[in-house]
Structure formats: C-alpha cells, structure tokens
User: Fold this.
Amino acid sequence: MDNIMRQDASSAATARVTPQQYLQSLSRWRIIEIVFWLATLAPYFLFPNYLSLASQIAIAALFALSLDLILGYAGVVSLGHAAFFGLGAYSAGIFAKFVWGEPFTGLLVGATVAAIVGYGSSFIISRFRHLTLIMITLGLGLLLAEAANSAHWLTGGSDGFQGIEMWPVLGLFSFDLYGKTAYAYALGVLFVLFLGARRLVNSPFGLALRGIRENWVRMPAIGAQSRAHIRTAYTISAFMAGVAGAVLAQTTQTVSLESISFQRSADVLVMLVLGGAGRLYGGLVGSVIFMIARDQFSGIAPQYWYFWIGVLLVMVVTFLPNGILGGLSKIVARWRSK
Amino acid sequence: MLPPVFGVLFDGIAYGMLLFVLSVGLSVTLGLMNFVNLAHCAFAMLGGYVTVTLVNQFHWPFLATLPVAFVAAAAASVVLERILYRRLYRASDLDQVLLTIGIAFISVAVAAYFFGTLQQPIQTPEFLRGAVNMLGIGLGKYRLFLVGVALVVTVLLIAGLDYTRFGAQVRAAVDNQRMARGLGIDVDRTFAITFALGSGLAGLGGSLAIDIVGLDPSFAFTYLVYVLIIVSVGGLGSIAGSFAAACLIGISDIAGKYYVPELGAFLIYLVMVIVLMWRPAGLFGRR
Amino acid sequence: MTALATRGLSKTFGSLVVARDIELTLPVGARYALIGPNGAGKTTLINLITGMLAPNAGQITLGNDDITGLEPQERVRRGLARTFQINTLFAGLNPLEAVTLVVMERRGIARRFWQNIADNKEAIEEAYSILEKLKLGDCAYQTTRELPYGRQRLLEIALALATKPKVLLLDEPAAGVPQEESGEIFEVVGGLSNDLTLLFIEHDMHVVFRFATHIIVLVGGAIFTQGSPAQIAADPGVREVYLGKRHHG
Assistant:
C-alpha cells in the first residue's frame, strides 16, 4: 500500500504541493483502509458462529502488528517475540485470578510487565546485529519459555493456568459463551492500538526507524542514536505484544505454555511475512489468512500443516518478497501505468 | 578410583563431539558467506534416515553406511544450493531465515510421511556396544567411538584448511571476501564445495546421533537449537571455536541434566546469552 | 583558529599499518585536498576521524574539543560530517524524507512517536530548502533508488549538509559520475560557505587544483608531503608516486 500512496503523492507533488502538504498526504486515511475496518464488523452478521475464531484472529493481528514495528520498520529480526505475548498473558491471568478481574486494568498489568522486560532486554538487543541478534532473541525467548515451564507453581506449567474469571467489560458486557463480548473487546483493543501504531509509523520516530532499516551504517553518520531508537521501539513493541497476550488470557480465561512457545514466535513471523512486513496492514492481512487457513485445515496432523507453511515460506521468499500486500501493490502499480 | 563426576564429564565430552560434527559445517559456511542456513539439521536428519534405511531394510553394516550418509547429505545440499540457495546469498537475514526454515519444515513432513513419527532404532555393531571400565568409570564404547570419529574429522579439517590450496582459499574468503574475490578466488564455487562438505558432515553427525539421542522427524529442529548455540558461542568460521563451544555446551547440558534436572535446558540458553553478551562474535569469532 | 586537528593518529590491523602517525591541522574555512594512490589509506583516515574506526594511538580535536573517545553520532552533533565514496543512502526513502530525517535528528525531535511528521513545519521547510540549494527540489518526492546516479551523489552531500557541520569530509564526491554531470557537483562544492571547513578526497587533479588551497599527499598510510598546489605540482616525489597519473586514480 505504501508504494501506491507514494506514487499518487509523487505525481500530485509535481502539481505544486508544499513539502509539508506532501508529507501530510502520506498519512491520509485511504478508502481501502476504511473498507478494511468496516469489514472487521462482518463476523457479527455473516459468521456469528465463528466469533471466537474472529477474536483469535484479532489477537494474532495485534501480536503481528507489534512484531511489524521492530521487524518491518526497524529491521530487528526476532525469533522470540512470544516471550512478551506470553508474559502479558500470564501476568494478566495471574492478576485477574488473584487480585482484580476488571479487564482494562488487567490489560495494563500485562502490557506493563511485558514492557518492563522488553525495556530491560532492549539493552542487549540493541547492541547486536545479524546472526547474533537472531540468536539472542531466540535464546531469550527459549529461556522464558523454560522458566514458565519450570515455575509451574505460578503458571500451572504444562497443565496450563486455569480459573480466571473476568468481570464484565465496562461493568456492562460480560464475556459470554458465544464470544460476542470477546470479539468486540479484542477488536476494540486492536483498533485503538492500531491507531497508535499508525500514528507512530507516520511520526518522526517512524521515519527514524525506517532509516535504521534502510541503512544502518548511515544513521550514526547523520547524528542519530540508533541504539536508543531501537530500545524505544522494542519497548513499545513489547507493550503491544503484552496487550495481545493479555486479551488472549482474558477472552479464553486460560493461559497455556503455547502462548510463550517458540511455535507462537514462529507463527507470528510467518503471518507477518505472508502479509508483508513494513506495511502496517501486512500483519493484519497475514493473520486473517493464516488463522482462517489453520482453522480450515485443523484436521490434519501438525507436521503436514507445517509442510504447507514450509512451501509457503519458500514461495513467498522466492516470488513475493514483500508479502501479499507487496505483490498487490506491484500489480496495482503496473495496472495504473498502462 | 575416579569419582562419578568424571563419568559425567566423559559423557558430556562425547555428546559435545557429536554436536561438533553436527555444527562445524554450519560454522564454516556461515563464516564464509554469512548465509544463515536453518535447514542444516535437516541434512543431518537425511543422513540419519539413510543409515536407518540401509541398516534396517538392506542389512548393511552400520559403519559402511556412514560414508553413504555423508555423500547423500552432501549431494542433497548441492542440489538445494543450485536451485534455491544461490539466489539468496545477497538477500537479507530475514529472507534467508525464512527460506531455510521453510525447507526444514518441508523435510520434517517428508520424513514423517515416509518413516512415521516414532524414533527409529538401529542395531549398532557388536564391538561398539557395552562399556570399557577405566579407573572405576564405565566409558561407553559407542561414545569412545564418537570421540574418535570427531577427532579424526577435526584433524582432517585442520589439515585440509592449513595444507591444501582449497583450504587456503576457504581461509582467505572467510577472512575477507572482497579481497579474496579481488585475488581471483572463485568465492561462489568455494562456498558451494564448503557447503557440500559441511552438509555432508551434518549427515554423518545425524547417523552417529541415532544411537545416542534417537532419530525422529523432530530432529531437524530439536538439534538445530543446539547447533545454532554452538555456532554463535564458538564464533563463525572457526573450527576451534566450534570445538570449544561444542565441548562447553555438551558438558553443560549433560552436567546440568544430571546435577540440576529442574533447570532443564535453561542452562545452555543462559550460557549462550551470557557468552554472546560478553563476546558478541563468539569465543573465537572476529568482528 | 583550528577547525580540525589530528596528532599522532595511527591504526594497524595485525601487522598491516593503515595509518601511521598522522598529523593534520585544518584552519577554519580551509579547502584542503587529500590525495594519494589507491590503497594509501585516505578513506581509512576519514573513518578514523569520524569514529567509524578506532585508532590504536593518537588524538583528534574538533575546534577546542577532544573527540578521540566519542561515538560517531556524538561527533556529528559537534559539527563533523562526512560523505561516503560509495553511495550510502536510504534507498527506500525519498530525498525529502531523508533530509527531513537528518534535520529532525539534529533538532532532537526524531524520537517523537506521538506526533505526525507533517506537524514539524520548520524542520520540513529547512529540509526542502537544503534540497533546493542542491538542485534536488524537483526530484524531492522520488524514491532514492530510482534517482539517477549523479542526483544520488548530490543527495549524499545534502544529507551531510543537513547536519549543519562545521567541518565536512567529502570522500570522492564525484566518484563514478560521468563528466557531463560532475560539473553540478563541483558547483555545489564551490558554493559552500567560507565558514565551513572542507577536506576532500579526490583523484581528479583538475578538480584538486581548482578548489584546494592546500594539498596533503598520503602514501602507505603516512603523510608523504603537503603544501600549496604549486608546491605539490612541482614536487618530483609526488609525480613519482603517481607515476605520471594526472586524471583519475
């Protein structure tokens, strides 16, 4: 989507637009975005039996969006992002069970715990690149997963964390069996945080992150503190991932080791890459496709599901390096130039 | 009489030697081309299944299957390198990670399809079963064999690197790729050959691993983690680094599981994170 | 008043000496050229001065400040900027975005993630005026990777100028640019303010003699000789080092 916006704006610019107006036009809301968000209401009318799947998709989309901030925009490849998702989930779950069942406070608790750990680990993350960085994110993720497994007095270990009871959202809407409240809650949270992410991406900081991804070497040469930027982005990303995990805990009222597992880290990476990283909507689109496909094929054994994921990955890297959104924007660009 | 800790140490070293054979190929190819190949242990798995098939279906002696496993894995890597890997040498880390993970997923599914998901047992030759008693500790004969094979591999590798022309080309390319190209060294061909050798060694490692840790389709990922840890901790492109790191990780893992089982795999992840924070390029790495 | 000075600057890689005891003094407003055969260590010297490479010994002073221990971005903040011999640009950004980024970093507002970038009128206008000065105004919205090579070289300089440097190190500003387009680049170089201190690496001796008031000759990592253009032109040692090369290196 970015490229189309740019080409639009570029041709408009030759029609005498001030630089400020040009930059403003890049962050204008597009019709297709409005269509997208209106479409997210469709499950209520078209697929009322699939609302719990819809909630799962919204949660996955928020998680993918959080990964996009560091991977698609700052270029930090993380194989352990589920650490923050899981931290958010467990913290929110523990908070709801032992302290207070109000949903929004629970979100804040989950997000804050994840953000604190994110901030701490960002000092390590920001110092490294390439394989070392990948390995450290993998290592930290695996460490936390093992820790969650071992601390079964707190987390329930492989039996899972049970017994969460949530109070009604805003005191009015209790989490019902059909998932109506859950979906509205998950979708609402996703939308609000999406607005925040959209603002970030179109801010000076968003530009700085893109600078880091585009040319790491040039950044110090223009006086930029790349490591500090990465720390900030990583912390914000951890916060968002924590919110996503918290929503999962609250809407499903259990937390399992899966939420902090390598599998979850790998899946979110696939979702993001499938949709296209660095395009804001890539993670959202990718999650929708991935989660629906997984639901449809849930009957087959896991290794065969991963066979198709493997094929998909090879295809995407070979033919669609910018994901589905990247491919679409190329097609649209070609169609426009005819 | 030696205290039991020496037995644990010996097991750790033997395990480390296995991990070394599995990892050294990845370390050298990473140091050479910075190509992140997460399908490395899929080649190991291939070697393992070749051995299983030859021993169980065709009744070959175990030792005879080892060179075949090496060759099969090397050949598979050549095919893959030609078709897919070649295009991604200058691609981003992320693309390389995704492509090779995808290949690993595919290979796991293929293995599961043909061999099922259960562990494949094989019969090792008579003279490798049992233990030798030395100073009160039982030294498993198979483990002694592992150590022996690893040492032979190490000697061959070091001799190859230091005394052959090809080895000199590899060393030059690891040291400074641009300059090596400038000197007329065909770095791409050097990489292709090194990659084949490294994958072949992984295949050998896979075969050797069957009797120690068992072989099933999840091998490709379970041992990938160990291999990646060793490669990062040891330093890219360093044989000595891989050797040292493999011993360190092997001993830590075995000792950890023996003395502090509640820690589980926690210990090696911690070791890795700490080493990388102290020396980001690995113990013997550069840059 | 000295804008930039180095004392005893040295760097070795194992047994390879890439910089040997380099002593440089650039007065404010200087137009110094750094020349030498390929591999003499000219870019290495720039990397040492900007902090991309850590020296084994020596001291670097910017104005009155000792910057030897400072990180590269710190040195930029104190007024030291450089361009790269090989384009090191933000390929996916357009010139306006790239220069705006530099301006915002300089003004310390790059961390603002809650604000739309378009709200920073002054920074954007400053960025655009830099682009116009470098004749890049009409391609300001085109993605950098689509720009012709000559324009990209100008953008290299624009990025450095946007940091409002006191000292600017130019590494072969017209490298790889065809003859017809290099004029634009040198016009820009020639039009730079007299308060700005310039050290540029160059192979084209016509350019060197046109712009430089003082020439430093680097050979094998050490300063071979230095002096006014007339002195250097007459120096037989320099001619020997170049073996009759008069145009490109």
Chain B has a mean pLDDT of 87. Chain B has eleven helices and two strands.
